[in-house]
Amino acid sequence: MRKLLFVVVACALSLAAAQWRRSDSCPAADGQHIYIVTTNDIHSALDNVPRLASLVKQYRAKGDVLLVDSGDRCSGHTFVDDAPMPGASIVSLMNRLGYDAATLGNHEFDYGMEHLADLFDLYDFEIVCANLAADDAARFGKLSAGCVFERGGVKIAFAGVVDTEMINEGRITPAGKSAAFRGAKFSPARETAARVVDSLARDNDFVVLLSHMGNKTDSLLALSSPSCRWIASGHSHDRRATDVGGIHISQNAKSLRYVTVADLTVRGGRIVSVDYEQLPVSEFEPDPEYVEAVARIRAAMPEMFDTVGRAEYEATKDGVANLFVEALAGHDYDGFRPEVTVYHFGGVRIGGIPAGDIPRWLIYDSDIFRSTVFIGEMTRSELECLVKTKYNSQGADGGKDKESHYVYLRSDVPYRIDTLPGGDAERVVFPTLDDGRKYRVAMCNYVAEEYVDNYEGLKGVVDMRNTGIPVRDLLLERLAASADGYRPDNRIKQYEASSEAGNY
């Protein structure tokens, strides 16, 4: 049944793939215009805020504007995330821009529920997230399942949901470390969204779901919940503008590179047409007022402009991942020298390092999660179990984890993943390691706590201990040790081999 459903989704997407603008009917000759401007996955992208400000200002000059966001405002850049109160500066800018509503993304939880509650005190706009229930409800009084705005005699409703793609400590949660979600309970995102959207549709003229579920789940929801007029999506960082089952789905990549604008023409208290357009933010000149505001945020952290190294040539993202591995592998942990180092590719948060001087903020940007190093001992078979289980991992809905079926675990020791025709790993082979002995291993806290401590065959068997040493410090140490300059290694040392092709 699941395969059939995905075939239906694929067909719907192929029919609409080239459609970037849609009208529900012929545009009205006259009438009031209401513009809904949507953003998603801002990820602390300060530099594009002044351009967004100009865009919003232009639309406000033409008609009513509702400005909304689909989650992940935080976790992306040092000048927001390493400030005394992480995330506060981006919330302040959003308040200044006049946002009306937003949902929560998984990265809103990165610093835990107490910190999220502190940020809630700063929001001047509605926060809608129907599938979150906080243990300390009093601290989250601003939270609601949905909200309604009346413009031009019509009621426009927004619901919100955050993904529930992981299973942490036996419960469904958004993507992230289990500790971040303590003090919160989540109901299944897609089922909750369908229920809330159906409820809002009974009393309102136009219902928008601010979804932080990602592409696949949004498509499934569109096919099963016709009440929603528009899914303004986030989470998977795609650029998307399609119709699925008669419902418009948009997503604007990340870091404020694009926005989607819905133009609702209202006449006589009725919505007579709806047009969607996705716009590159780069086409708008930066608003000087916001340029100055961003400059003040950066100037408050002058130490971040210190030069910490020099790259002799450009490092790709794979090269940055290798830098992480090298940094952990080269450190002496009070006499413990790693023989194998493992790092999570998803924890590398920059796309590369350009040639030339490297500022401190760029290294901090590469590890926005403030990871620490864990050390311990593992056998060859345990390392192979770690990689295979991650490669084959599934989300809470039984589908593929978005980070699975790809070489996400990088190492200084080569390995091969032998895959079956269906795409799963049949086995993992570390050809240079011997059976029957333990190897000294270093890894980041995310791999140790979320994988080793939870995977069958490793949980309770492998003991990794937290050194408390920040990965950032080791990255800086590695760059400082490169007296002749940092020479990136951009190779991928792990690879996949298909058993179907017989190439292993």
Can you put this structure into words, describing what you see?
A hairpin with a 2-residue loop joins strand 16 (258-267) and strand 17. The chain is of the alpha/beta class. It is globular and about 80 Å long. The longest helix has 15 residues, at 2-16. Helix 2 (49-60) packs antiparallel against helix 8 (288-299), helix 6 (189-201) crosses helix 7 (215-224) and helix 9 packs across helix 13. The two termini are 33 Å apart. It has two domains: 19-297, Purple Acid Phosphatase, chain A, domain 2 (4-Layer Sandwich); 306-498, 5'-nucleotidase,  domain 2 (Alpha-Beta Complex), CATH 3.90.780.10. The protein has 13 helices and 29 strands. Strands 6-4-3-2-1-16-17 form a seven-stranded mixed β-sheet, covered by helices on one side. Strands 7-8-12-13-15-14 form a six-stranded mixed β-sheet. A five-stranded mixed β-sheet has the order 24-20-27-23-28, with helices on both faces.
CATH superfamily of the largest domain: Metallo-dependent phosphatases
Compute the number of structural domains. Answer: 2
First-residue to last-residue Cα separation: 33 Å
**Which oligomerization state do the chains in this entry correspond to?**
single chain
Q: Compute the average pLDDT.
A: 91
- The total strand number stands at 29
Could you say which overall geometry the principal axes of the C-alpha atoms support?
globular
